TrEMBL record, chains A, B:
UniProt entry tagged with the keyword Transmembrane helix: no
Protein name: Thiamine-monophosphate kinase
InterPro entries: PurM-like_C_sf (IPR036676), PurM-like_N (IPR016188), PurM-like_N_sf (IPR036921), ThiL-like (IPR006283)
Organism superkingdom: Eukaryota
Keywords: Kinase, Transferase
HAMAP family: TMP_kinase
GO biological process, one term: thiamine biosynthetic process
């Protein structure tokens, strides 16, 4: 279908735009019954179901702002671009069904690069059972820009918004936190060492978990069905893309509530504890401000506590208070420290 | 909410990312009953309706590739970014309901620029009665990149795909063609004149229609209800974003058919006829290859001809043949000229 250059690589301009889209999306498998028509027409066609509501979520990822191809293969990037969107659907207590993937990329990328990127997209689609139903591929004057839109569904009685938490509700997080941010620090350190001495063999073995959390994050697709099996409908829910502090403040703000978050309760993997020390970073600070863990943060009624008690996926980290008590971290010594939103601000290039 | 600089302008970094999204999307009006929840949570929530299928369409627009801010205000750009997506929904014979708008933009843009862009987005939403339910706003290292996703619905028995045309079907276009491309040529000529002599006052009066077609295109929202009122379900449909030739070839290819397109039937506005002469361009060539008219191209059964006959919105331009007869233009002197896809290829920067 296309000619190889001497190096076995193919420039994008050797393809026409339509040929390229066709090439990248041929043989796409569909996993969802609701996908009536996927890529190839003016719009995708999805079957509605009167008992459910449709969820739509979209994210844009920009090279040099949200990702850096020094640390990450294009396959991992494709996988992550899908996962971060699906995470938003799961955060509504919904089930993700379809995605569209749009790309703008400069001519430094070759067709083989795009194939690798699509391998990641397809792997994520297969892993999460979502269908790739559309998109757009075009050129950019600089770098790679990815826009993914995810479509999902949820029963109206199970939907979880950011608002809905009320006084006394328990605050729960899934999995553990801080790994993704620390994984990034490890990769950055190794890059700097490599620049000084390219013969240095990095020993990434002790940091496998952290690096995987950074370069191949997973979304908590398992949580909505787990909650259903446990008979729990959270009163509010959000995914942790920007750090626990920022996300909890989103819930408090939307719900017009305050909170008490217990430092000692925050679930942290042992690798985060050991590695954070070598970076002179406090593991709790990393969890609060680090981001990219894509765990879920939700609140439940106190009466539902027995249903989740002891579940290894779920940790109670605090409770919701009235708004005028503020949003606070309770330190190990019982000190109240006001929570601050320290998510990443892509415009100012600083933590906010 | 934000401090003005001396010139009354505000840099993006003075806002946080969340504050900026909140600022741009506050007071959004919703026009659709199916919009349960719009901007502000992990995902938008749309009510499904069991009698309808959901349509999803997405487009990415890149500065310097798809648009040039020399010719176009940010308000017009915002309007156009929405319109080109809605056009895809109407091309499925559907009704557009919601959109998400994602942006990546460099720090050369100011908050006031973004406000102007959103004025256009909001005007389009109001004009077409669609709800802005989500999106993402982030920084880019260069230029402006826009990704819009439109969600619509259609009854399964009325949906029109690109495939579905069969031998003998009549080929119909809405409105007239060529204006948008010629409008671009006029704007480009005036820019060049201005560069040579900045005191020259351009006389755009004779080209008003052409320029409006280029900078403020409209999507044919009226056509699906018109077809319904006429009792016609097209056998295939597509919107004309890349030129009549390329779009007709899409229909022929998807339907595994050929076609005869009559040069003398192609609907052309008088301004296109007079202005094309001064550019030494053939008006039919402009219609075939020009693009960006956002009219609809569809095929109907011959038996439906009496229903559309004489309608000022609709022009029969040819008919569908078997595949082995090829896709041809029939010239005024009866010559058969094979149609070529001459849409714009963003990668090679040339017509394909």
């Amino acid at each position: 279908m296309f000619e190889n250059k001497g190096n076995g690589k193919t420039s994008l301009s050797e393809f026409g735009e339509f040929a390229l889209i066709n090439y990248l999306t041929k043989d796409l498998k569909n996993y969802q019954k609701t996908t009536i028509l996927g890529v190839g027409d003016d719009a995708a066609v999805l079957q509605s179901d009167s008992k459910k509501q449709t969820l739509v979520s979209t994210d844009m990822l920009v090279e040099g702002v949200h990702f850096n191809l020094t640390y990450m293969s294009l396959k991992h990037l494709g996988y992550k671009a899908v996962v971060v969107n699906l995470s938003d659907i799961y955060a509504m207590n919904g089930n993700a069904k379809q995605i569209t993937v749009s790309l703008a990329l400069s001519n430094r990328f070759l067709v083989e690069d795009l194939e690798e990127f699509y391998l990641g997209i397809r792997l994520a689609a297969e892993t999460y059972g979502v269908d790739i139903v559309g998109g757009d591929t075009t050129s950019s004057s600089k770098g790679l820009i990815i826009s993914v839109t995810a479509v999902g569904e949820v029963s109206p009685e199970k939907i979880t918004l950011r608002k809905g938490a009320s006084e006394g509700d328990l605050i729960v997080v899934t999995g553990d936190l801080g790994g993704a941010y620390l994984g990034f620090q490890v990769l950055e350190r190794e890059r700097q060492i490599f620049e000084v001495n390219p013969n240095n063999q990095p020993d990434l073995e002790p940091h496998t978990y952290l690096i995987e959390r950074q370069i191949k994050p997973e979304a908590r697709k398992d949580i909505p069905p787990l909650l259903e099996a446990l008979g729990v409908v959270p009163t509010s829910m959000i995914d942790i893309s920007d750090g626990l502090s920022s996300e909890l403040l989103h819930i408090c703000h939307a719900s017009e509530m305050g909170c008490q978050l217990y430092e000692e309760k925050i679930p942290i993997d042992p690798q985060v504890l050991t590695t954070s020390e070598s970076f002179n970073l406090h593991p709790v600070t990393i969890c609060l401000n680090g981001g990219e863990d894509y765990e879920l943060l939700f609140t439940i009624k106190q009466k539902d506590y027995p249903k989740i008690k002891g579940n290894p996926n779920l940790t109670v980290v605090g409770y919701i208070t009235s708004k005028n008590e503020g949003a606070n971290l309770v330190s190990r010594i019982g000190e109240l420290i006001p929570l601050k939103a320290q998510g990443w601000d892509s415009f100012s290039g600083k933590e906010v």
